[in-house]
Amino acid sequence: MGRPTTSARLLIVQPYIAEYRAPLYPLLKEQLHEQQIELSVAASTPTPTNGARLDDTGPVHVDVPLTERTLTVAGRRLVRRRIRPVLAQFKPDLIIAEQAVKNLETFQLLIRGGSEAAPRVALWGQGIDDDASDTGLVATVRSTFTRRADWFFAYTPQGRNHVIDHGFPADRVTILHNTMDLRALRAKLELITDGDVENFARQLSFEPQTAALFIGGVDERKGIRFLLDVATRIRTRMPTFTLLIGGAGDLTHEVVAAEQAGAPVRYLGRLDGARKALALRSAQVLTIPEWVGLVAVDSFAAGIPIVTTDFSTHSTEFEYLTPNVNAVITAHDPQQYADSVVALLNDRPRLRTLQSGAAASSDGLAIEDMADRFVAGIVAWHDAGRR
Question: 277 vs 58, which has greater pLDDT?
Fold first, then answer.
């Protein structure tokens, strides 16, 4: 990788620093420093919905705190972060912002990007329209402002193809293969013993051989109500079935109420570190009916297949899944979904095949690999100069 001819200051703007993203920034800073590019991260605090997930890392990874104001226009939540004082203080040459229509500061940055004195602006994100409720107008706005960016960092090949199909130059796109810290998770998984699983199952009164696990935000966009319905349907056919639910969110109270009412559910709270590894080791499948994202990487690290649906809101990491190789994908119907989970748990040879397929699907998804690709794209962008 060639060194840029001059030093540069890069600012990455994020809504907040989620736990899964935190390990990426030290890797980027170290590698970019070697390329004479100084990286700083600007972020605010999570919105109430995201805050309920309890995955904010706080100020530890934030170099430049941002303040923000939330607006509601035509029923849609918009956020404006005060970016102008940060630009005056930090004076970045390059800025990478999130590709999201709701972030009004991104429009401000892209409009400023037309002047010679302004920093060059790149976007990173899914590339595709990630919200089934988006109208044609919103999708058009997203594509229009994406084309104003100087470079695009796409989470996956599907995202790259989408922005190119909508007019973005193919030679100004970097595919990141979005992921998280697989090495750290695997190290924790290796420490979990059969005795740990037995004790955990005894404490919570469930049978690991017929247990499923949900990990993620416990909120409407992840299909929690759908999943609670499914769990009850499965229990009628499989008396020992239990659904473990790990995470936090604004529907936590409904999960707790269902458990207290006798539903085959065990609420585990937010999972991280060793407790997350223990939960993954204590289940046979991951049940993620809607909005599959980086949980696909959890699946591969633990060698546990995902059972999901063909719902329209999946993130681009959904493309990491291959039916009957590392996942089962059903229609978005609770009875079909329940039947598929029962069939898989009752078919041990097929389950073992899918578990092996999940474990083999993580090649190229180490966070170190993502950092390498990110840095290579940043250097290429820097060296390409202004359009």
Answer: 277
In a domain, 1, yes or no: no
- Answer yes or no: do 209 and 132 share one domain: no
**Residue 86 located in a structural domain:** yes
Q: What is the three-state SS of the chain?
A: CCCCCCCEEEEEEECCCECCCCCHHHHHHHHHHHCCEEEEEEECCCCHHHHCCCCECHHHHCCEECCEEEEEECCEEEEEECCHHHHHHHCCCEEEEECCCCEHHHHHHHHHCCCCCCCEEEEEECCCCCCCCCCHHHHHHHHHHHHCCCEEEECCHHHHHHHHHCCCCHHHEEECCCCCCHHHHHHHHHHCCHHHHHHHHHHHCCCHHHEEEEECCCCHHHCHHHHHHHHHHHHHHCCCCEEEEECCCCCHHHHHHHHHCCCCEEEEECCCHHHHHHHHHCCCEEECCCCCCCHHHHHHHHCCCEEEECCCCCCHHHHHCCECCCEEEECCCHHHHHHHHHHHHHCHHHHHHHHHHHHHHHCCCCHHHHHHHHHHHHHHHHHHCCC
pLDDT at position 134 over 60: no
pTM over 0.70: yes
Domain hosting residue 88, numbered range: 8-179+366-384
CATH of the domain at 215: 3.40.50.2000
Q: What is the pLDDT of residues 48-80, one digit of tens each?
A: 676 677 777 777 779 989 988 888 887 788 888
For the chain, how many structural domains are there in total? 2
